Amino acid sequence: MLKVFLIPILKDNYVFVAANLKTKECVIVDPGQAAPVKNLILKEQLRPRAILLTHHHWDHIGGVQELKKSFDVRIYAPEKEQKSIDFADQYLSDGDAVREAGFNFKTLDLSGHTYGHIGYWEEKQNWLFSGDVLFSMGCGRIFDGSIEDHYRSLLKIKNLPPETWVYCTHEYTELNLGFCQKKFPQDQELQSFAEQVRSLRQNNEPTVPFQLKQELALNPFLKVNNETEFITLREERNSY
Asked: Does the predicted model carry a pTM greater than 0.90?
């Protein structure tokens, strides 16, 4: 049996642990802190094999060094961010494969949020670990990447199967919906979805993962018609 564990850390981050419950092997994605990950691994009696990093921001890599000391893991990171993540064992570019713990991840270049951001797509499981590129009802801010690259990265995600489960690393759905509802007050589907999300969050339930088809139908950043519309919408969101 294959499962992804969600570990909430910091204010609104998630760390993901993709595990094979039969072999007890697992991979860890974007561990911003080490202690909560260690606790889960010990509780579930897992054996970490690798750490997958999407980009260099501290809330995604802060726990890596401690986990490396505790477990015999191989660290994967974006090739373009080698200077910012100088402790990885292997650096990845678009199309590279990561085969660990029985999983087969394909690396996707998803630059934009940062200059070298990557994602990890497990085609057989229909899992995408998207880091900070795509959020439910939103998308990531532009830091040291370019907004044009970010648009192209979202187009790349749009071409994945609609059944893909997206594991983004922040619980931003309710916050993003505030902007969406203000921008599109007549969208009844959006209003209905917002009620579902409010109910989940009131019960402290996560809105992650979510299926890509949901975002294709509702997320305004995936519904824009061109790059110009995307840039305008992203700039509006920046000032919300």
From this structure: yes
